[in-house]
Write a structure and sequence with these properties.
Blueprint lengths: L2 H7 L10 H4 L18 H11 L2 H6 L3 E3 L2 E2 L10 E4 L29 H7 L2 H17 L4 E2 L23 H16 L4 E7 L12 E3 L2 H8 L1 H8 L5 E4 L3 E2 L2 E2 L4 H11 L5 E3 L8 H6 L19 H8 L5 H17 L23 H14 L1 E5 L12 E5 L24 H9 L4 E5 L26 H13 L3 E7 L22 H11 L3 E6 L15 E6 L5 H9 L21 H4 L9 E3 L8 H6 L17 E10 L8 E9 L5 E11 L10 E10 L4 E8 L6 E3 L4 E4 L2 E10 L2 E10 L3 E3 L1
Parallel strand pairs: 3-4, 4-5, 5-7, 6-8, 6-17, 7-10, 12-13, 12-14, 14-15, 15-16
Antiparallel strand pairs: 1-2, 2-3, 8-9, 11-16, 18-19, 19-22, 20-21, 20-25, 23-24, 24-27, 25-26
Helix pairs in contact: 3-13, 5-14, 6-7, 6-14, 7-9, 14-18, 15-18, 16-17
The protein binds beta-D-glucopyranose (BGC).
């Protein structure tokens, strides 16, 4: 469609025309105006309020007037709409250009990185994660929280993987829905981001991603759709990148056709900061609120230039009205519109302590369940009475992380390091010797360079560091090595991707020398995903991946190391043996050339690639060990033909056959035997985290609805579940499938 014909046709109304007349002009002098009448339907109140706004006032609602807000219209009781980052907790107060204001009362609970949340595979914890942020946001007077971030991990290098929920659309969707429900139940709006496919930070503002329709539908969009249609998310943030030639913040296909028209999204689309590039495209292609970080707010694309276009008749006012309706709809949902003659509404809850002990406990529980035990040859859990001296080696043992990484940063009231957590747990009964061991990455490497605390610590002599670590290892009963990545120097930082998946600094050499000096070495890695481990993995008896565990991280870690808590995390992303094995790299389809990246691997993201192409990963998707053992038995597939949409109930028994209480994440994968279109070998379609006492057995039951069998058919423009045979695979990871059964779908099911 040409721009001009679009202009004529645009202005898709959000509400039925019948409500249009309802409010306009019917407020008598004494009468309570319709828009303030809580007994009236929101749609009618929106229309009434809309009809009272001047053109200029309406335009003021569709762009920023400060770093994290839009202007209000006080004469009508419309307050400013206050937003804040972000996905892992409520960020500290920032002013213009995102400059940190150093307030004294803006602490927040730093939850673990979202990839850690994903590793819990626990939807209840996802709800609690959202609840904590929602309650603290409310406390701090925020209306919209900019999260969760649900972009799919396409490459282990992406600098924001730690903020995202892993490589699988089903796992991501289930967690995102629960997170949003927990957050929005507190009276704040979530803003699911970044719509869509912000899966690399390198050239994120301009990169043109070429993604075929089926891949978009099956891999990159499901979490957004679930956020809209299941969780009722009130706002969606457009991504920086382009998809198929158009920036996501002004992308007709994504915003108007898919999000608003097909999915029926009623809320507002917010741009990523400075993610809008044109007035015409943003005006017409579904962007509702333009945000940014430069200060000439009148010069925003959806400010004066838009107003001029409306005044000249270039854009019909219906285009503006649709955006304003959405803005007002969100405000009504949040109960923000107030009687202008009464004191202004505030979204702040009555003052309570910021970051309460209850919230900190939730953060600790999430961290405890997030740790993934990748290897354990009879070393963990450690038994304190049998230990006199522990060597704690590695720069991450004394590091804190919550304040780094870009916009997901949190000013935590405290953060327990690994060393502190271990020392808290042991209470001075065991001698702890600490050695730094390696030089950690320093500097920001991300977009927020000016606001990251830049400490340029000069590197220490690495041979001296290694010698000290080896001496410490030799003198101890066991070694707890705490290394991995951090949020500096281009690692796990917004605005930059990692260059490779090697451990930074001298860690590969150090770990080898430490384990040689003391074979009883536990390696703990912090970070946002896979690292190469060739140099030392075979020699190390125990390995735990800890992600970024939030403000209670060190305490959580100690509880797992010393057996108070049994680890139950499972990888939400494949760890490849080497970067070149993972799909985008194997196909030379990252980071793109001449500003363009073709998603050549299509559907084969993460384990879908490794399974279909029969490539052995280092650790597969869904993998994680426990201190106990589990047994799967007696799979039954109970068809539910009478209930359309519920084709099969998967039932099996799960028993804890070891001597410790523990939790297992039972995973259900579906494989189509003769698909009508090529499909990945198998796909995750169900999971359940089951907590079992030693010796306890439980019947587990998971319903697979028709979506579990469907693929997207771009020709039919529909989700199609072919009639025919499917294998249902149940197990402990994507590569440890312990039960399988066959299921026949007797008729083809199609859904738009
Ligand atoms: C990030 C968003 C964030 C926004 C506001 C952008 O750079 O991509 O995720 O919410 O800044 O800080």
């Amino acid at each position: 469609m040409s721009l001009m014909s679009k202009i004529k046709h645009r202005g898709m109304p959000l509400f039925a025309a019948s409500v249009l007349a309802a409010g306009a002009g019917n407020a008598g002098a004494q009468e309570r105006p319709l828009y303030l009448d809580g007994a009236k339907p929101v749609e009618a109140r929106v229309e009434d309020l809309l009809s009272r706004l001047t053109l200029e006032e309406k335009v003021s609602l569709v762009h920023a007037n400060a770093h994290f807000s839009t202007a209000g219209v006080p004469r009508l009781g419309i307050p400013a709409l206050i937003m804040d980052d972000g996905p892992l907790g409520v960020r500290e107060e920032v002013g213009e250009h995102g400059v940190i204001l150093n307030h004294k009362d803006d602490f927040a609970t730093a939850l673990p990185g979202a990839l850690g949340l994903a590793a819990t595979w626990n939807t209840n914890l996802a709800f609690d994660f959202g609840l904590v942020i929602g309650q603290e946001a409310k406390q701090r007077g925020k209306d919209i929280m900019l999260g969760p971030a649900v972009n799919i991990q396409r490459t282990p290098l992406c600098g924001r993987n730690f903020e995202y929920l892993g490589e699988d659309p089903f796992l991501t969707s289930r967690l995102a829905v629960n997170y949003i429900e927990g957050e929005q139940a507190q009276g704040v709006s979530s803003c699911v981001k970044h719509f869509a496919a912000n899966s690399q930070e390198y050239q994120r503002g301009s990169i043109n991603e070429i993604i075929d329709e089926r891949t978009l539908r099956e891999i990159y969009l499901p979490a957004f759709r679930a956020a809209v249609q299941e969780a009722g998310v009130m706002t969606v943030m457009g991504a920086y990148n382009q998809i198929n030639g158009q920036h996501c913040c002004e992308n007709e296909r994504l915003l108007n056709e898919i999000l608003k028209h097909e999915w029926g999204f009623k809320g507002a689309v917010i741009s990523d900061w400075n993610g809008v590039h044109h007035t015409d495209l943003a005006a017409l292609n579904g962007m509702d609120i333009e945000m940014g970080s430069w200060q000439d707010y009148d010069e925003y694309y959806l400010a004066s230039p838009f107003l001029a276009g409306l005044q000249s008749g270039k854009f019909p006012v219906s285009v503006l009205d649709d955006k304003v309706r959405r803005h007002l709809y969100v405000m009504y949902k949040l109960n923000l519109i107030h009687d202008p003659s009464a004191p202004p509404a505030t979204n702040a809850a009555p003052p309570i302590e910021l970051s309460t002990p209850a919230h900190q406990e939730i953060a600790r529980k999430i961290a405890e369940e997030s740790f993934v035990l990748l290897k354990n040859q009879n070393l963990l859990p450690l038994d304190p009475p049998r230990l006199k001296t522990i060597a704690i080696i590695g720069a991450n043992a004394t590091a804190i992380f919550a304040h780094g990484g870009g916009s997901a940063r949190i000013k935590a009231p405290y953060e327990i390091t690994a060393l502190e957590g271990i020392s808290n747990r042991l209470g001075g009964n065991i001698k702890l010797i600490y050695a730094q061991g390696y030089n950690p990455p320093v500097g920001s490497g991300g977009v927020e360079t000016q606001s990251e605390a830049e400490e340029t610590v000069p590197p220490l002599d690495s041979s001296k560091l290694i010698a000290e670590a080896v001496a410490a290892a030799k003198s101890a009963d066991v070694v707890i090595y705490v290394g991995g990545l951090n949020h500096h120097g281009g690692y796990d930082t917004e605005g930059a991707d990692r260059k490779d998946i090697k451990l930074p600094g001298e860690q590969d050499e150090l770990i080898q020398k430490v384990v040689q000096a003391n074979p009883k070495t536990v390696v703990i890695l912090y970070g946002g995903g896979a690292v190469e481990m060739d140099a030392w993995l075979a020699k190390v008896p125990a390995l735990l991946y800890a992600w970024y565990p939030g403000l209670e991280g060190g305490n959580a870690l100690a509880r797992v190391l010393f057996g108070d808590v049994n680890p139950s995390g499972k990888l939400p992303c494949t760890f490849p043996k080497r970067l070149a094995d993972s799909p985008a790299h194997a196909l030379d389809a990252y980071p793109g050339t001449n500003g363009k990246v073709v998603y050549k691997e299509g559907l084969l993201v993460g384990y879908r690639w490794f399974d279909t192409k029969k490539i052995e990963p280092l650790f597969p998707f869904g993998y994680g060990l426990s201190y106990t053992t589990f047994k799967y038995a007696n799979l039954k597939l109970v068809p539910a033909p009478a209930a359309p949409g519920l084709p099969v109930k998967v039932e099996f028994e799960l028993a804890n056959t070891g001597s410790r209480a523990g939790a297992e994440v039972a995973q259900i994968y579906v494989q189509e035997t003769s698909p009508s279109l090529p499909r990945p070998l198998k796909e995750l379609k169900g999971f359940k985290k089951v907590f079992l006492q030693p010796g306890e057995k439980q019947k587990v039951s998971v319903v697979l609805d028709r979506n579990a069998f469907a693929h997207y058919d771009p020709d039919k423009k529909a989700w199609v579940a072919d009639k025919g045979d499917y294998k249902i695979l149940v197990g402990s990871s994507s590569r440890d499938l312990l039960l399988d059964g066959k299921f026949k779908l007797t008729e083809t099911m199609m859904e738009k």
